[in-house]
Amino acid sequence: MDLFTTKAKLRRLGRPLAVAVGALTGGSYARPLITCGVPALLTIGCALAVFAVTHTAVGMLLEWLYGETYRCKAPGCGFHVRIPGTDAGESRWWQEIAAAHPTHDHAHHA
Q1: What is the pLDDT of residues 29-86, one digit of tens each?
Q2: 35-44, long-range: CB < 8 A, 24+ apart
Q3: Quick count: other Cβ atoms within 10 Å of Cβ 22?
Q4: Residue 95's pLDDT is what?
Q5: Contact, 98 vs 71, CB < 8 A?
Q6: Does residue 92 register a pLDDT over 90?
Q7: CA separation for the pair 21, 27 (Å, rounded)
Q8: How far is CA 28 from CA 21, 50, 54, 80, 89, in A?
Q9: Partners of 80 in beta bridges
Q10: Can you spell out the DSSP letters for the chain?
């Protein structure tokens, strides 16, 4: 299995995986709260907060691991953009965007 196939599969499965991990984590926090007699609305609020944080963290981790980063090639320029998944045409477009970003133009005109 090549890297492109792995990235494509993870892009397709990333969101459901993040939702599943978030739901399991939120549920695991809710169960002890319910058994200790914490009110239902407070338990639901806590479980949803844990779900949201976990879901977002897993999604960001997958994006960080399998996304593409396009950087400006100018010396000393720190501009970059990170995209979760691109095809060949989009890849070229983002390379051009990174090379000609507005901040870069202003730095040279100042």
Answers
A1: 999 999 999 999 999 999 999 999 999 999 888 877 777 777 787 787 877 777 776 6
A2: none
A3: 22
A4: 76
A5: yes
A6: no
A7: 10
A8: 11, 10, 12, 38, 43
A9: 71
A10: --HHHHHHHHHHHHHHHHHHHHHHHHHHHHHHHHHTT--HHHHHHHHHHHHHHHHHHHHHHHHHHH-EEEE--STT---EEEES---HHHHHHHHHHHHT-HHHHHHHH-
Place of tokens 């977002």: 56
Query: Shortest CA distance to 62 belongs to which of 54, 52, 71, 72?
Result: 54
Q: How far apart are CA 33 and CA 40, in angstroms?
A: 9
Q: Which amino acid would we find at residue 101? A: H
Count of residues making up the chain? 110
